[in-house]
Design a protein that fits this description.
Blueprint (H helix, E strand, L loop, with lengths): L12 E10 L3 E5 L4 E5 L3 E10 L6 E10 L12 E17 L2 E17 L7 E3 L2 E3 L1 E4 L2 E11 L2 E16 L4 E16 L2
Antiparallel strand pairs: 1-4, 1-13, 2-3, 2-13, 4-5, 5-6, 6-7, 7-11, 8-9, 10-12, 11-12, 12-13
Amino acid sequence: MLLTAPAHAQVTYMFYPKISIEAPGTHYSEMSLAGVHNKTTAGISAGLELISSPILYNVSLGGGLSYQFTRKLDTDNYQGFRFITVYGIAKYKCATFMGVECSIIGNVGYNGNFLAAGHYAENYTVNDEDLSYALLGGVYYAGGVRFDKDIFFFEAAYKNFDGTASSTTFRYDAIVHYRTVSFSIGIMI
């Protein structure tokens, strides 16, 4: 059976600005010989998504941009980190109950910027040794549920942000993973 949209269907797009509160998460630095786990403080993100009306049955597609405000590790003398992310969105409408649309969402994208201070700063000193890092982005993915009612929506999602901190001083790369659960609210415009 060939799956196609009806010939008369017209796809429209809507903007969805949103604010996300990210629960305390985990920050894991994976180096060649060992890894370091740390807990993070809660954080806030601002984002904008562009999502289509259903393209094929109950599936909508789109894209988004998210900016994380700085969050910190639960360690001393660490000034924080953040990611700026560009991602694609797939949204599958599962059901509607009492006017509330329930959807499963998935995001895949790239952290264009991994920004940090303190430990990952460009010039950080440990035991009178100057360290220098080059920070790069990495893969981003998320999955969760979304509830739409009129022009408002609520979303809960698990998110994974990856980045790389390359030490030019000691010649090693640390793969950085930041994982959190976020709760978002927004409007459709």
